[in-house]
Design brief:
The protein is an alpha+beta fold. Helices cover 19% and strands 37% of the residues. It has helices at 47-57, 93-103, 128-133, 180-190, and strands at 6-9, 16-19, 27-31, 35-42, 68-70, 75-80, 83-90, 109-113, 118-124, 150-155, 158-166, 170-176, 196-198.
């Protein structure tokens, strides 16, 4: 039986969190504050546009709906036919933006730093699918949603963008900063049975 939830301070002091004793049943969660988050717009049918993005980020632009690609430094998340999120290293938004703008010079495109409006939440552990299912209508079964999958949805009343990073499974959730407190509150309420353990990111 899990011990009662204890209140603590979420890493970075952004919102309250809950922890339990470490348990294989617990959900592991933590905010990845400070990541570089940019919105990229352009014509995916234009080979020059795709080549410029690949040159700037060393990643092929995902063109398949509801998909994402990543390497050790960046993640590109498909949002629409001409719309992507670019997730980069902590505190390097201006550098990523500059590289993209330089590579895309003269092309019909837009690069916008939205780091101040969004943050990313890490979610993993055995109960992660069941916890998300309480407030998210997406089908997260492995046959429908696996590593590289991404989709816009909601978690209760919070608009989110969600992607899976590995088979564990591990998910990352893009959340508007103004909804961080509400999202975490609903996460606490959704983990009363399994427990919630915070993970601290540097």
């Amino acid at each position: 039986m899990l011990e009662p939830l204890q209140r603590t301070v979420l890493p970075g002091g952004d919102a309250p969190a809950a922890t339990t004793t470490l348990s294989e049943r617990a959900l592991l969660a933590g905010w990845r504050n400070g990541l570089s988050i940019l919105n990229l717009r352009g014509n995916a049918d234009d080979p020059a546009f795709r080549s410029a993005v690949s040159q700037a980020l060393s990643l092929e632009l995902p063109r398949q709906p509801c998909s994402s690609v990543a390497d050790a430094d960046h993640r590109l998340v498909w949002v629409g036919p001409d719309d992507w999120f670019v997730i980069g290293p902590r505190g390097q938004a201006s550098g990523v933006e500059s590289r993209l703008r330089e590579a895309l010079t003269g092309m019909h495109s837009a690069v916008t730093d939205v780091s101040g409006g969004y943050t990313v939440l890490h979610l993993s552990g055995n109960p992660v699918r069941e916890v998300l299912a309480q407030g998210c209508p997406l089908d997260l079964h492995p046959r429908a949603f696996g590593p590289g999958s991404s989709a816009g949805s909601v978690f209760f009343k919070t608009s989110i963008w969600l992607w899976q990073t590995d088979m564990a499974p591990t998910y990352e959730v893009l959340v508007r900063r103004s909804f961080m407190g509400y999202f975490w509150l609903m996460l606490e309420r959704s983990t009363q049975e399994c427990g919630l353990v915070t993970r601290r990111f540097p």
